[in-house]
Design brief:
The complex is a heterodimer of chains A (about 350) and B (about 160). Chain A has about 350 residues and is of the alpha+beta class. In chain A, about 40% of the residues lie in helices and about 15% in strands. Chain A folds into 3 domains: about 1-125, no CATH class; about 135-215, Monooxygenase (Up-down Bundle), CATH 1.20.1280; about 220-340, Ku70, Chain: A, Domain 2 (Beta Barrel), CATH 2.40.290.10. Chain A starts with a helix and ends in a 10-residue tail after the last strand. In chain B, strand 1 and strand 2 form a beta hairpin. The chains are: A alpha+beta (about 350), B mainly alpha (about 160).
C-alpha cells in the first residue's frame, strides 16, 4: 500500500485528475437550503492538489475540502447531516473505483501481468524501501510533537522533507511555551527584552528564540504579600550575573519603596534581572492585582532573604532603562553585601 | 437502532472481508460517521487504501481496546499490550500510522507517533537516515548550515529542568 502511494504520486502525477466533480454535485444538491452558488476559489479547494487517485493525501484533501466547505456555510448547521454522510459514502465508493482504474492503467503502462503486485505483494522486490514520509506530512508532524527540541533539531537535518516539516512554527512555539514561556504569546515587549534582534513577524521566530530561552534559568515561586498569598509565579532570569541553582520557593513582599529611588545607580545594568509570569491562568488575577497595587502607590516591592534582596518592579522608567516596555512585572536582585540603598519605607 | 450484535463488514484494498462488531469498528471515527444513519444488521464498508495485513492489525488494536474498556483493564496492562503491539517492522508501523490517520483512530495514531518519536530520540542524523532508509538530499553547503544552526543542541546543559 505504501508503494501504491509512493509510486502513484510520482509516476502518475502527469495524469491530471480534476477531482471532486461528483462530490461537489452531491454537496450542492443537498445544500440547496443555502445559496448554492459556490465561488470559484472554493471549488479549487476541492480540486487541488493533484494527487494520484489512490493516495492518502488525495483522500485527505477531499475530506478536508468537505470539512472546509461545511465550515464556510453556517446555514448548514440547521440542516441535518445527511448530505455529509452521502458525500462521504460517495467519496469512499469513488475512491475504490478510481483506485481500481488506476491499477489497471498502471498495469498496462508497466505491462505487469498481475494486479496484485501493485496492491501489497511487491514487498519481495524491495524490502528496504524508504519510508515515504512526504506522503504523510501531518503524521510526521504528530511524531515531531513528541520530540524534545534537541531531537527535533537533529530530525530537521535528516532531509529537506523532514526539515520542512520540523521547522513548522507550531512545533517550536509549543516547545517555547513549555519552556515555560507562556507570556511570549501575550507580551510583545518580552520578545524585545529577551533578544532585540528578533523580528516577531518572522514565522521562524519561535525556532530562533528557542536556544536563547533554553539557556535561561527559571524557577517556580510563591508570591506572598506580608502574610497573604498573592499567586504562583514562574521566575525567569533574563540578564545579569547568574543566581546559581537555588531560588527561594516563596518570596514575601514585606516593604515598599518609592520608584523614584530605583535607578541604574542602585541596580546597575549588569545586575540580575528577572521576569515574572503567572504560573497558570488562575494566577493571572493575583499578579495583575499586585502590579496595580504597586503602580497606584508608585512603589517597588521588596522581599528580603538572607543574602539577597528581591525588588519587584512595575512598569516604570527603570524597567524602560532595562529595555522593557511591557506591562508585566520585572525583578531586580541585590546581594546584601553590595547594597547601597536605605530602607526608606 | 440496536448496536448490540450488529456486524460491520470491512473490506480491505485487496478485497479481504473482515467481520467486526459494531462497537469495535466504530472506534474509527471515519467508520462511525459513515455508519451513523445506516440501520441494517450488516453493513459493508470498503476501506480502499488499507491492505488486509494492515487492516487486520488495526482491527486487532480496536478489538483489544474495546474489550479493555469494557472489562476495565488496568492501565499497566493496556500499556504493556500497546508496547507489544507496536513491536513490528518499520514498514508495518508506517502503514498502521497511515491507516490510523485515514480511519481516524486518534489513540492508535498517537501510539504509533509516540513509538516513532521514541525511535528517533537520542539518535544522530545518520542513524535516523539508516533507520528509515532516507537519503540525505541537502547540498554540502546546506548540510553545513544546518549543523551550525543546530549546534546549540549539543552544548546545552541540563539547565532546562531547573524547576523543583
Amino acid at each position: 500500500m505504501l508503494h501504491g502511494v509512493a509510486e502513484g504520486s510520482t509516476r502518475k502525477r502527469s495524469r491530471v485528475v480534476m477531482e471532486g466533480d461528483d462530490g461537489l454535485q452531491d454537496i450542492q444538491d443537498d445544500a440547496r437550503s443555502g445559496n448554492s452558488d459556490r465561488p470559484e476559489e472554493e471549488m479549487s479547494v476541492l480540486a487541488k492538489p493533484l494527487w494520484s487517485p489512490d493516495s492518502v493525501p488525495r483522500m485527505e484533501s477531499e475530506l478536508k475540502g468537505l470539512i472546509e466547505y461545511v465550515r464556510r456555510k453556517p446555514q448548514l448547521n440547521d440542516a441535518n447531516a445527511s448530505f455529509m454522510r452521502d458525500s462521504l459514502r460517495t467519496m469512499l465508493i469513488k475512491c475504490t473505483r478510481e483506485a481500481e482504474l488506476a491499477f489497471e492503467t498502471e498495469s498496462s503502462i508497466v505491462d505487469s501481468p498481475s494486479r496484485s503486485s501493485s496492491i501489497s505483494g511487491d514487498d519481495s522486490k524491495d524490502e528496504n524501501t524508504a519510508v515515504e514520509w512526504y506522503a504523510v506530512h501531518d503524521i510526521l508532524e504528530t511524531v515531531f510533537r513528541y520530540l524534545s527540541a534537541k531531537d527535533l533539531s537533529v530530525a530537521r537535518g535528516v532531509s529537506k522533507d523532514w526539515n520542512k516539516c520540523g521547522s513548522k512554527p507550531s512545533l517550536w512555539r509549543q516547545l517555547c511555551l513549555q519552556q515555560p514561556w507562556r507570556s511570549l504569546q501575550t507580551d510583545r515587549a518580552l520578545w524585545n527584552l529577551i533578544d532585540p534582534t528578533l523580528d516577531v513577524k518572522d514565522p521562524d521566530v519561535w525556532r530562533k528564540v528557542y536556544p536563547t530561552l533554553a539557556r535561561k534559568k527559571w524557577w517556580r515561586c510563591k508570591l506572598m504579600k506580608t502574610n497573604k498569598f498573592v499567586c504562583n509565579l514562574i521566575v525567569h532570569q533574563i540578564d545579569g550575573e547568574s543566581l546559581g541553582d537555588n531560588f527561594p520557593s516563596t518570596l514575601t513582599v514585606e516593604r515598599r519603596f518609592a520608584l523614584m529611588h530605583l535607578t541604574l545607580a542602585m541596580l546597575p545594568i549588569n545586575s540580575p534581572l528577572l521576569y515574572f509570569e503567572p504560573e497558570t491562568d488562575e494566577d493571572k488575577e493575583g499578579l495583575e492585582g499586585f502590579i496595580q497595587y504597586l503602580i497606584r502607590r508608585d512603589r517597588a516591592g521588596l522581599a528580603i532573604e538572607q543574602h539577597r534582596r528581591y525588588i519587584f518592579i512595575p512598569p516604570c522608567d527603570y524597567s524602560r532603562d532595562r529595555r522593557y516596555e511591557g506591562k508585566s512585572l520585572l525583578g531586580g536582585v541585590q546581594l546584601s553585601s553590595a547594597h547601597g540603598f536605605q530602607n526608606n519605607i | 437502532m440496536t448496536e448490540k450484535g450488529r456486524i460491520v463488514k470491512m473490506v480491505s484494498q485487496d478485497q479481504e472481508e473482515f467481520e467486526v462488531e459494531y462497537g469495535v469498528a466504530t472506534m474509527s471515527t471515519l467508520i462511525a460517521n459513515v455508519l451513523q444513519d445506516v440501520s441494517e444488521e450488516t453493513t459493508t464498508v470498503p476501506i480502499p487504501n488499507v491492505n488486509a495485513q494492515v487492516l487486520a492489525k488495526v482491527i486487532e488494536y480496536c478489538r483489544y481496546h474495546y474489550e479493555a474498556k469494557r472489562i476495565d483493564q488496568s492501565e499497566e496492562d493496556i500499556e504493556r499490550w500497546n508496547k507489544d503491539f507496536m513491536k513490528v517492522d518499520n514498514k508495518t508501523l508506517f502503514n498502521i500510522l497511515i491507516a490510523a490517520s485515514f480511519l481516524d483512530i486518534a489513540d492508535l495514531l498517537d501510539l504509533g507517533c509516540k513509538t516513532v518519536a521514541g525511535m528517533i530520540k537520542d539518535k544522530s542524523v545518520e542513524q535516523i537516515r539508516e533507520l528509515f532508509c532516507i537519503e540525505g538530499d541537502f547540498t554540502e553547503e546546506q548540510e553545513a548550515k544546518m549543523r551550525e544552526e543546530n549546534n546549540w543542541g549539543s552544548e546545552m546543559s541540563q539547565e532546562n529542568n531547573a524547576a523543583q
